[in-house]
Design goal:
Shape: globular
Structural class: alpha/beta
CATH topology: Rossmann fold
Number of domains: 1
Strand content: 5-15%
CATH architecture: 3-Layer(aba) Sandwich
Number of helices: 6
Largest sheet: 3 strands, parallel
Number of strands: 5
Radius of gyration: 16 Å
Helix content: 40-55%
Amino acid sequence: MLKPGGGQVVVEGESAAQLNDRRRAQLRAERFGFVFQDAALDATRTVLDNIVETALYRGQPREPAVRRANELMAQFGVELRSSAKPGQVSGGQAQRIALCRALLNDPRIVLADEPTGNLDPSSAGVVVDALRAQARSGAAVIVVTHEPTLVATCDRKIEL
């Protein structure tokens, strides 16, 4: 998300260190999806707006983004009224909402930090299945986790 302080980060042939802030932000918005450990939802906005905002950053029209967000919410079992706020949802729903936000633009790179850390087995399964499906579509899905059952589903493992 920031200019690298060392090493090299290359995304689709572009060195992140050589890009200006605007281009890095554009690349991040177009190519990446993020699933944060704590869901990182904006409590002041509706659940739907939390999901759709990533499309608006890319300059996409709101209506197609809303349709896609509703499809993802249905796919991941997030059945809420459109005016619901993040404070009105369970931890499992919040994480699935974050997953919807991350996958809204069908990103080629997904970064997930402890995406199942605080979830019940059913909610965790939904998240893992979605991340695996994204990987099967050709995306690079990078997961940071301490959860052995999630590690077991990964194609490759790097221990630090």
